[in-house]
Write a structure and sequence with these properties.
Helix content of chain A: 55-70%
Oligomer: homotetramer
Radius of gyration of chain A: 24 Å
Largest sheet of chain A: 2 strands, antiparallel
Order of helices and strands of chain A: HHHHHHHEEHHHEHHE
Number of helices of chain A: 12
Largest interface: A-B, 83 and 83 residues
CATH class of the domain at 107-193 and 225-347 in chain A: Mainly Alpha
Structural class of chain A: mainly alpha
Strand content of chain A: 5-15%
CATH superfamily of the domain at 107-193 and 225-347 in chain A: Fumarase/aspartase (Central domain)
């Protein structure tokens, strides 16, 4: 099933990004959830919150392979995969250590922390692609320094500018996005661990120590539960859409420059099934589409801020429908923009 | 890769709909595109627009199996799958009939008509699910006639009403949606056939006859090209979101009624990984999430109305990113709503 | 205060429409609410639902002038203007007839019916503007019949088409919008009358007769309450955005044609404060802006479908923030499009 | 004309904020534009970019009163107010100094810098309201420390938590928003000065010095032109929506707590025109409506990132339709939230 182009065997060739999409596969999600359960068992054992050493749990998790048909049925019933996953893990661990699996945690801890772990990897990937774009655009500035082109304001020719003026207006926002990513990462890459209602009530006075140890083992920052405070995710979604928006401007400019074919020369444009003479600015158009797509999705991540009480099934589910696609859209746009920059043979006169 | 929950092996157990998603698989898309090419060859042969009989093309199409790796690469280059697909078909048909494959058509004809063919099937599926919901809600009205409940206005208890008053406010919009679907179907299920720029310039005075014959063979209405007029698709997207919006109200009401547990009794709510006593109204919450999801996506289908000139690569691509998901979200919501109605054991007092 | 350009003394010169905006003034709203109360008193008197004849109420309403400062304070406290308005009306009517003012009705009846009454006038205005646009575009088709221009697909020159092909792609959607408006008007222009929770409980067996009489006096269709079923409003909002979307395509095309200045000649473009040679396609750009604006707002009208229980304070308020602006944006776009069509001096070659 | 509730004489009593709206009045806009022209004349005189001293211009500006009817007509023609405003200013200044008014600047410089000047004041106002909310919520934590309430997860009672746990989940995001505001302010409150196409071509080697002096006089940061890089505005819009989203969660929680009336007691809820016993949580509902409103609008500010070439008439106009409303919605939500917190008489048990 391939309802989304990001998952589509053919369309993802243009619109997808394999490396980013990989972090949202079932395999990656389950692996991250098992990392959570392993780190939790270790942290709780170290802090004396569970009476055993964690080795038995860790060993069983290493060999664990889920029954995905049952996981799917579990989601259909429970709305989340964790209750069934924990049942399977406990069965794999066996008596008596099974009682110490997932101790004090709840579904949302596992799912949100798994998400953050994978977002951490996605952030790294996207950050690298962003740097590559900055470098490529700076390269274009060097390549075409000294050339001029006609500025266009309100779709009308205005006055001549340097080609580097235009390119700088593509590059400068990307550098501000690098700055923004640094600022928000500290708020985003934070462990979620709160138990049934955010109070870690089963861990008593060991709660803070366990959470800190858990965060440390997972390479995440430690902070109180944020299960019903989704601002860091919405902020990150905003950042993703800022990036695709800036790249959409780049794509729109390239498509407009390519109309008459004199301001820009591109290698390798797209073909037509009827008009062999055409060189369509396919990647440029895709950048515009992905920018508008993320701008639309962003609205949903902000709707999900109205996350009622201690856990909102509906707002949380809405995030799942949106955020992974925004990440992949952004990675795809960055990949396409870098490729498009590499296709530029000539700019200006 | 499973970026979208609609494609996700686990999450689609709750949020997906297999029958609807099937129409957006690569297989279904290619099959519909081949139907287009077959019907086109037949129509053109009958009308004398191509000099051969179409049997050779039809036979080759029946046996044709695409090289999907090359199709994927074609999308990456051309932005659409059709140029590479037509190359492969022509190779399969061979000299001399290959010259008459795809004659006078362009990529958008194939892709848009393939979409409409599959939307036709999706409309039927969704229409049946809608009827099922109307029947089930009418059944609840019968089952709980004579019972009363407290109306709630602005989140505060108001005055007693009949349980059937509440149920009727769930059912009545669905019946209006049935009426709307009839009205819009005639505008939606229309062949797209215009050639390179909408004028069918290669078919000369046979253009109208070929288009009519093509439409007839495909079971679609015949009308002039609409390749740069996307109102019927945006209208349909609006209908999908009206449906999920009405079901979201149903879901929100059920979740609110289930809070105290006295107004409604449901069988089979979702379990929690920490609180075995809980019965979460999972399907009701999912209805709210899907309603908000479609409300967000709808904005994108209307952005795509700004479809510049004779063909907009960016606006068209934006549709691909959105419409299939809206269809599946709607089918999933209808399935969930029918299941939720079936879970109602008791309503009112 | 002029937060919205639609209300702004300067910006509304471009982006507003006085006739449409007039229906959303306080004066128009209060006048429509008083019409409701007057028609209600008459209907209830005729049906014997109130013991008096209605003349005293009608007379007092004719002379009634509200204390708007108190109305404003009432909105701040009650979230709706009606409780304070009814208090003022009752005081104006005086003992003993005051007891029969607003009998059996609730705030939402007054506000929603007032809205529908004014939407009815707006629909007429917008419908006329739509017809004018169809006529003007048909006029352009006549004026420039026989001329050719280069089709542009994916932002690249394709093959020559007739100028009338391009114009027809602007006109045809508008004619479908005329058809759609007819279909939806019957669902939109419906009285809302349900009382506290939709059951007209105070009117006993006279409820249906009173509602029918009330609808008749107001020139609206009669149907059961729809106070928590907002599909007709969301459908209408969708129609508004279809219209502006189609006009946005027209605007985008004109702006693109005006770039090189050879495909189209316009009289009276906008000036620049620095570049006296420029003729900016201001109206064309505004059409694109209004199309994107309505596409965004539409999402909100669909979010408001999740209208919980018998009355949702939050979803209802959300409609108020959005729908009037969508109506005015549409009227402004239609006005601008007609003006833009009239500015066309030359099209094609 | 009062199309938007933020401008509406009655509805702004609930949904508006006078102090925030004041910054978007015509008067405030014109005053800020005149400040720009005055500071520009002074900066250019000091740097020797204009041959006169600036006193004559400054004096004329101090006495200048625009002809607003002509400004309105100018907007209708030019799409921006500046060309006509500059004509009027030049006439007021008179020969020979009129030649040095607005020297080297363009419309967008005036409008964008005027916006930023007023956003600076709005940021201060909103920042104060945000602090007030943090203080009030911290006050509630003190007032109700030691009390318990039932946590609710997925709309179902979960386990008891401290009342302070719930309040902290309202307060903590607001404190993160304070941190975010500091980070983004430096990117937002920046002078825009680029001339016709961003290159300040008329100022030659004095360009940088004039821009720095201009920024200094206006109390803004100095940076190269950002007229076609709208990321700082979109980022700020995202921040506004983060704030209203967090307050929407607060409002939704209060409305849900108020249902049964035992978890929370509020003074001064809203009345009903039919049910005198009701105490509607009007401010809480308005917070939800404003959160959803801003979440919707945010999509538009991100669409406007696709700001083609050196100046986009359509994307820029789209910002005007959206950003002021988002600012006022945020200020209104902050005001309402502080009032709502002050209405809390009792929380928990």
């Amino acid at each position: 099933m391939t309802v989304s182009p990001f998952d589509h065997p053919l369309l993802s060739g243009l619109l997808g990004d394999e490396e980013a999409a990989r972090h949202f596969s079932v395999e990656a999600d389950i692996a991250a959830m098992l990392s959570f359960e392993r780190a939790l068992a270790e942290a709780e054992a170290e802090c004396g919150a569970i009476p055993c050493d964690a080795a038995a749990i860790v060993k069983a998790l290493a060999a664990f392979r889920p029954d995905t048909a049952k996981l799917r049925a579990g989601v259909a019933t429970d709305g989340v995969v964790v209750p069934e996953l924990v049942r399977q893990i406990k069965a794999a661990v066996g008596v008596p250590h099974d009682a110490h699996v997932h101790f004090g945690a709840t579904s949302q801890d596992v799912i949100d922390t798994s998400l953050v772990l994978r977002l951490g990897e996605a952030v790294e990937h996207v950050g690298l692609l962003l740097s590559e774009n900055v470098v490529r655009l700076a390269g274009l500035e060097q390549d075409f320094e000294g050339r001029a082109m006609m500025a266009v304001t309100r779709m009308q020719p205005a006055i001549p500018i340097a080609v580097t003026d235009r390119i700088a207006s593509w590059r400068a926002p990307l550098q501000r996005h690098q700055e923004r990513l640094k600022e928000l990462s500290g708020r985003l890459l934070v462990v979620q661990f709160g138990g049934a209602a955010g109070t870690l009530e089963k861990l008593g006075d060991k709660a803070a120590a366990v959470r800190a140890a858990l965060a440390g083992k997972l390479g995440l920052a430690d902070a109180p539960q944020w299960h019903n405070q989704r601002d860091a995710l919405a902020e990150f979604a905003g950042w993703l859409s800022l990036v695709t928006g800036s790249l959409g401007k780049f794509g729109q400019d390239v498509a407009l420059m390519a109309q008459a074919g004199t301001d820009i020369k591109l290698t390798g444009g797209g073909g037509s099934s009827t008009m062999p003479h055409k060189q369509n600015p396919v990647k440029a158009e895709a950048l515009v589409a992905l920018a508008r797509f993320n701008a639309i999705q962003l609205s949903g991540m902000h709707q999900a801020l109205v996350h009622e009480q201690e856990r909102s099934g509906s707002a949380w589910t809405l995030e799942w429908l949106i955020l992974p696609q925004m990440v992949v859209a952004t990675a795809a746009a960055l990949r396409l923009a870098a490729e498009l920059a590499a296709q530029v043979e000539s700019l200006g006169h």
